Amino acid sequence: xxxxxxxxxxxxxxxxxxxxxxxxxxxxxxxxxxxxxxxxxxxxxxxxxxxxxxxxxxxxxxxxxxxxxxxxxxxxxxxxxxxxxxxxxxxxxxxxxxxxxxxxxxxxxxxxxxxxxxxxxxxxxxxxxxxxxxxxxxxxxxxxxxxxxxxxxxxxxxxxxxxxxxxxxxxxxxxxxxxxxxxxxxxxxxxxxxxxxxxxxxxxxxxxxxxxxxxxx
Length: 217
Fold this sequence. Notes:
Blueprint lengths: L3 E2 L5 E5 L2 E4 L5 E3 L21 H12 L5 H4 L6 H23 L3 H4 L1 H29 L15 H15 L5 H14 L7 H10 L9 H4 L1
Antiparallel strand pairs: 1-2, 2-3, 3-4
Helix pairs in contact: 1-3, 1-5, 3-6, 3-8, 5-6, 5-7, 6-7
């Protein structure tokens, strides 16, 4: 029985840390599902978390959200795959700011930007590895079937900066400007075509956020 819905009225049921679309059986990551160890990261070091340690914590929070089932092009649409990646970034960045405090984005924008650079490279490797594994498990689609678009590095970079921009505090002006510039630099035909941009925009649509009954109250 459906246990959640999104802003478009699509229904989902929860299963092992994921949300499955009742109609299409596409698998979405459940960002409300967190491992207990992710709730208390680096106690007592909220304002002085070393950048290298921050990157490790961010990667540790992101990896479960990029499992093969979330980026499998045989069961998920192109938009759903990119939506799962975007939600993964949102989740791990929220975990990171919970560990350091959001003031880090104001005090040390360079540290945050550098950490995000390492994070998106890590995400690109994980997504590429998992999509290759998924491709090897199922025969190639026949002619006339749906066109599966392998996630490109530019798309992952765009999703990472878009996720950061959406959760930054308003007073982190330097980092907001940096994120905005990076997004504009990526949104050029040499990096992303119009079809890719359409999928990315749809992936970040706030109406697609899955709300459980208790969240909708």
